[in-house]
Structure formats: structure tokens, C-alpha cells
Specification:
It is built from no helices and 11 strands. With about 120 residues, it is mostly beta strands. The protein is globular, with a radius of gyration of 13 Å.
Length: about 120
Amino acid sequence: QVQLVESGGDLVQPGGSLRLSCAASEFTLEPYAIGWFRQAPGKEREGVSCISSNDGYTNYASSVKGRFTISRDNAKNTVYLQMDSLKPEDTAVYYCAADPVIGLCVITLGSYEYWGQGTQVTVSS
């Protein structure tokens, strides 16, 4: 079983930055594409970004493109989501998820099997 843990969520002012982490304590994430998803109150869970297992291909939702950056540090067995220029509409619980896909990653819910518990991001003044 793949156990994922998100961290880094916080309360931040509009325009601020946060870096979220997705880690696996006892299993390697290297074979997996990793996606970030978020769910705001009253809304459906939506894809934010993903990174492929090997070649570093990344994909972003249009709403975060240019503001968020996903990266992977295989030595630390961790995937990061750097979030800059945060807006109130970015407020949500953020989840990371793993997909044993070979090739380009996608940010559709059905592709991901393993999920973390989520970390709360609140953007408010």
C-alpha cells in the first residue's frame, strides 16, 4: 500500500506564497505520477497539477498556470507544489495522489488510486 502525507497548508494573505509537500514515509514515489488536487467547500474536487514519474513532464490547470510550480525530489521521496501569488479562490483542502501511469500525467480524478489526507490552504486577509 502507498501511504501519502501532505503538509505545508496554512493561512496566508492574498499575494502570499506556500509550498506544499507530498511524501511517502515507507514507499518510494518514483514509479508514480503524482497529482495535486483541491476541493473547496461546496465544490467538486478539481485537478491542479501533476508531474510524471521519469521525464519531469508537468501539467497544470489553467487557473493556476504561471502561479504554481510542481517539482519532485526523488532523493527525499517528496513532491512539492510551490504556490505563489495566492488568491482567495485558491482556498481549499489540497490533496496529493499517486498514479502508476507510464508516460504523460493527467489531472483527472479517475486516473489516481492512492490519496493523502489533505492539507488546508486558506487565503484570506
